[in-house]
Amino acid sequence: MFSRFTALVAEVVGFGPQQIRPEDFTTHWRAITDSIATSDAGGSVSETDIPHHLGAMAELLCEEDSQKDSRDHGTMGLCLEFMLRHRILDTLYIPCKNDYPSGIRQEVLMFLIHMLGRMEQPLLPHVSVHQPVQKLIQLCGLHPQSPLALMEIQFLRTICLKVHDDTRLADFLLVDLPVKRSPLSPPSPSVSSVSPNNASQSSTSSPPVPTKTVYLVAEALQRLVNHNDSMVAMKAYECLLSCVSLRHEGVARVLASSQLPVLLASKLQYHFQLIPLSCSHTSIVGCNTGWG
């Protein structure tokens, strides 16, 4: 009781935490949308105020989250409510997809790293968070020598840490993706090759597209293990080990049927072959090494 009273007095006299103003959050967001809309073709995000406004929004969200009372568990602040209601992450994904203006994907990844890493409020269960996050994960590692690889691995590592703390969040990263058809696979039968009895049905319905369930984080990490930057590759392997150690039945089943076991086994074999024959087993046991 006394601590609450002293905290109230400190806030009144100006020594306590400042009150979060939701209008500041909306002002920063409007400035970002205006900057994106007026960006010149070929322009860089560093020539705009987008990094400043994204950083300010992340700070407001984290500060709002830290000021929540323990009795407010399950509720959300006004800034977070605005972000979810207006689907801000969905809007940010659109310029991120083509990295226009140049460099905005890095700034958005930094925004998510700060927000997901520092906020205690579970965010991934919200559809307006996990859907754009899923799309951003699928962009990671698509270009093997991308200068964004280090930022991408930090983004994926942040998600791995969150899921490791609460394995239920993995449910929002298990998705069904269409299976890419092999060039050697036979084409789908044309309408002319279908029997007359099924012609009308074939003309109105197309064959179902085959899909497979994947754990998005592991898929992205497997694309990054071959990066030229040894730091990126090492962190990708470390995050993959975190994925493997998850106590989640769905993730375990998906990873077991993927190429990940082969990848890890080949990496272990590679390291094993590097061990000198003259090396004692006691030296190996006491060796402190990593996946790099």
What does this structure look like?
The protein is mainly alpha-helical and 292 residues long. It has two domains: 11-69 and 77-139; 144-178 and 209-275. The chain has helices spanning 2-13, 22-37, 50-66, 78-85, 88-98, 104-118, 127-139, 149-165, 196-204, 216-224, 230-244, 249-256, 260-273, 281-285, and strands spanning 174-178, 211-215. The model is unreliable at 1-15 and 188-196 (pLDDT under 50).
Topology:
Elements: H1 2-13, H2 22-37, H3 50-66, H4 78-85, H5 88-98, H6 104-118, H7 127-139, H8 149-165, E1 174-178, H9 196-204, E2 211-215, H10 216-224, H11 230-244, H12 249-256, H13 260-273, H14 281-285
Antiparallel strand pairs: 1-2
Helix pairs in contact: 2-3, 3-6, 5-6, 5-7, 6-8, 7-10, 8-10, 8-11, 10-11
Shape: globular
H and E order = HHHHHHHHEHEHHHHH
Number of domains: 2
**What is the radius of gyration computed over CA atoms, rounded to a whole number of angstroms?**
24 Å
The tally of beta strands, per DSSP, is 2
Region (Disordered): 183-209
Protein name: Protein FAM160B1
Biased composition (Low complexity): 190-206
Pfam families: RAI16-like
Write a short abstract of this structure:
The protein is mainly alpha-helical. The protein is 58% helix and 3% strand. Residues 183-209 are annotated as: Disordered.
